[in-house]
Amino acid sequence: MSVVSPPTPKIGLPATIIGLAAGVILTGIGVIFGFVQGVSVQTIILSAIATLAAFVWGWLFILGQFVSDAPPPAEGELSEGRKVWLKFRPAIYGLIAILALFLILSLTIEGFFNVWNVVSLLILLTIIVLTRTLGRHFQENRSAFVGIMVLSGLFSIGTMNIEGFASAINIKSMLLFASFLGIASVGQTLVALLGGLDLSIPFIIGAANVGLLYIIGLGVPPWLAVIIVLAIGAGLGVINGFLSYRLQGQALIVTLGTGFAISGGVQIVTSIGSAYSGNVFGQVPAWLSNLAAMNGSTFGLPFPPVIAIWLAIAIILVAGMRLTVYGRYLYALGVNRTSAKRVMISELAYWVMMYAISGFFAAVTGSLLLGWSGGGFIGVGDQYLFLTLAAVVVGGTSLLGGAGGYGFTVIGVLVLQVLSSFLIGIGLDFEWQQFIFGLLILPMVALYARSPHIRTQI
Amino acid sequence: MSDLTADMELAARPAQGGRANPFLIVPITLFFLLLGLAVLRSPSLMTSAGIGSAIIVATPLILATYALMASVISGRGTVDLSIGPLIGFINVTLIQLHAAGVLTNPITIFGYAILAGALYQFLFSLIVVYVRVQPIIVSLSGYLALSGINLVILPRPGGIAPQFMADWGLGTTIFSPVFAILVLASLAWILFTQTAFYTHLRLMGSDERAAYTSGVPIYLVRIGAHLISGGFAGLAAVAFTALISSGDPSQGTTYTLIAVTALVLGGASLSGGRAGVFGSFLGAVNLYLITFCLATFNFGAVQSFVTSLAYGSILVISLLLTLIIPFIQRHVHNFSPTLYFIVLGVVALGVILHATQDRDPRARAVATEPAAIVQPLTPIARDRLYIGPLEVAEPGSNDSALRSQAAPFVLSALLLVVIAVFVRVAVSQSDRKSIAPAVAVVVAALVLLGAYLMRYEAPRNPVSGNTEESR
């Protein structure tokens, strides 16, 4: 395809029709609201023409870059409108839904129709159009592309609508929470690549959080206590790995069971002889607080070291999975375990290893969260039960194994974090945030992770 | 799976899936172990009120497990994580609509609950079928969305359940409306397993491609499975509302994890194709019994931690036990879960009778004393606390009264066991030329006669009979 910009890009009739229709609808909305708000007629006409022209030009230009040639003439059995419908059906659904939502919101909420919201709407529309057109050219990393588009769209909308969204302190706090979630999702990603699940992560986080403070309280030097906790976390992961390997297909429920047992057992140990059942109080060492607190510093630089740690982990994992033989074997096992076995890859060893890593990083997250909060609390990991799963899924790692990677999960984590900050920023409560989270996961996954039709699998 | 009788039975009655399911060994064993422990720890479980309250508490969980069962059988790893929030959603909307005066009479309330559940599951199945996203992602999405919106609809626990439900949650007798719901739901499921639709569902769950190529309308079957699942979820929500007799936005959410646990404890396969109503029922009851047993021990502040530890351990151990099932099958031919259930049932009945009917006179003598003792911390002598496993005492007048009250229950339990054995023998022998059915009929008639006579004599001479009968 030639990138030298052609003066009149060749574009199919269907795409032209959609573009015109979308442009006209957009212009119509603008005109209606112009009249409702009592703007002078000249301004309305001018801006309407400008909107239409800009939109149609953008449409032709962007589509023209990527739609290779005009489609072959119809054979006669399909009308033009039908073909348009078939080709761009999901995008049209998305466009109509968003336009309708915008109309309803504008009509019901006073002062909703302002410049920033219109720009936000345009950004959203652009994302949908781009993912449907450009996305076709990213066979390999479609989900990463969608994720980055959504991320940048959300970020720019947030910056425009919320004061201080792009300020250094907000970005720092977003990165801080993202690194907790990111470190907790390491294990979930690796295990998902094998086709398993690890629901014991939140329980190990809580147990490590409480257990670390308890061990420090016993008088053990903090560095030794951290090592003990991490080793126990990895050990629990090994147990998980053995059990899940033996009970293939039941990983979800096995890890849930071990999670319950771990959380109960640790709490029994820590609360024997303590007046506060479940909570542990004690002195967190200063270096651990510095590691994860908002006002921490890394070698004099004003950001908490946990962000740097997360970055290092991400780089090592992404590079390791691409370049080392261990990483390639992991993918081989996830794609087809039978053929992987034939080339002498030990399945058991990889299951145990990945679950051990998962337990280890859950314990790391628990220890870091102790540094962040300064007090032990068993429920600190509860929200990670489904958030780690959501980050993996939104990023684009398949839960069936074999496709994806930690780089995708990083994008997923960032999307979730920016989205949550944005929702907090526009003043939504926790329950609304959760609601919108739930509703958004589905279309984002549907953009790239649709399974093929059954008739193609036979 | 190459059990000879199972094959013969399958050949004779193809519609009866899941009847000869060897995976039922684990839940049955666990059930009777827990039941024995629970009764020995707290004999009050085996009173009308005890069983009644057990039913009230366990019914929402059992129904939630049924709801999961329908969609789990349909395969593709459909574990509906959103079942808990869905129950919570129906609960809070029910309470709010009732408060607004929209839903008043029982029929509309039941209709609303079932419809709301079915509608949600209908949407779920449409997304799975047409958008073709993995079901677990849809359920994850539903979990987050519904648990969020529940808190919006009802920010904190409160509200009043409809008037007619007010006394449902008391659980003073066995035969409560909740019990009726449970029985009807179980019957409905058993009827459902007799249909061709169910066979299609299981085929699709075991191998979707095979089902598609053999002409099963897999879209319709999947949608149907979800509709049934939604109906059961609605019933579970009604039972849940009756249990807490108010609205609670977050309590329902906890049902997700325990219902999945119960389903797996009951021998279902999360990858699809295998699940049974009997196993799911036992799995849910087992979970209730675990909590009940642990509640009889006093762990003080760490009570809930011990519960969670025991939960997790029992879950993992019983999953590991399913690994030895192939070995059992290899060495024990003609294994019948029904017979196993009955044998263990008779043993458990003996334990129940022992725990509820036998009293140690020494312990009873002590029981009246503590009221007079000034220092409550004086330890009671070890031998007075201990109740020997097989010591038979002379019952006092109080016990006699209790015994005469318990007689009908004991008799009906015996009767049930006899009928089960009889049916089992009759069915398995029906295609052979033998006198076993005739013998069974005669034995059953004799037992019925004996039961009638004992029942007739019971008020006059309540000491005789029952305990000797059970030994």
What does this structure look like?
- The complex is a heterodimer of chains A (458) and B (471).
- The longest helix of chain A is centred in the N-terminal third of the chain and has 29 residues, at 80-108.
- Chain A has a two-stranded antiparallel ribbon with strand order 1-2.
- By secondary structure, chain A is mainly alpha-helical.
- Chain A has helices at residues 13-36, 41-66, 80-108, 115-133, 142-161, 168-194, 201-217, 222-246, 251-271, 286-292, 305-323, 325-335, 337-342, 347-373, 384-395, 406-425, 430-448; strands spanning 279-280, 376-377.
- The two termini of chain A are 34 Å apart.
- In chain A, helix 3 (80-108) runs antiparallel to helix 4 (115-133), helix 7 runs antiparallel to helix 8 and helix 8 (222-246) runs antiparallel to helix 14 (347-373).
- Chain A has two domains: 13-137, no CATH class; 168-456, ABC transporter involved in vitamin B12 uptake, BtuC (Orthogonal Bundle).
- Chain A contains 17 helices and two strands.
- With 471 residues, chain B is mainly alpha-helical.
- Chain B folds into two domains: 1-20 and 336-362 and 387-471; 23-326, ABC transporter involved in vitamin B12 uptake, BtuC (Orthogonal Bundle).
- Chain B has 20 helices and no strands.
- Chain B has helices at 4-12, 25-41, 48-73, 83-99, 106-131, 135-153, 177-193, 196-206, 208-213, 218-244, 255-265, 277-296, 303-321, 325-331, 337-357, 361-367, 382-385, 397-429, 436-457, 466-470.
- In chain B, helix 3 (48-73) crosses helix 12 (277-296), helix 11 crosses helix 12 (277-296) and helix 15 (337-357) packs antiparallel against helix 18 (397-429).
- Chain B is globular and about 60 Å long.
- At the A-B interface, helix 9, helix 15 and helix 17 of A face helix 6, helix 9, helix 11 and helix 13 of B.
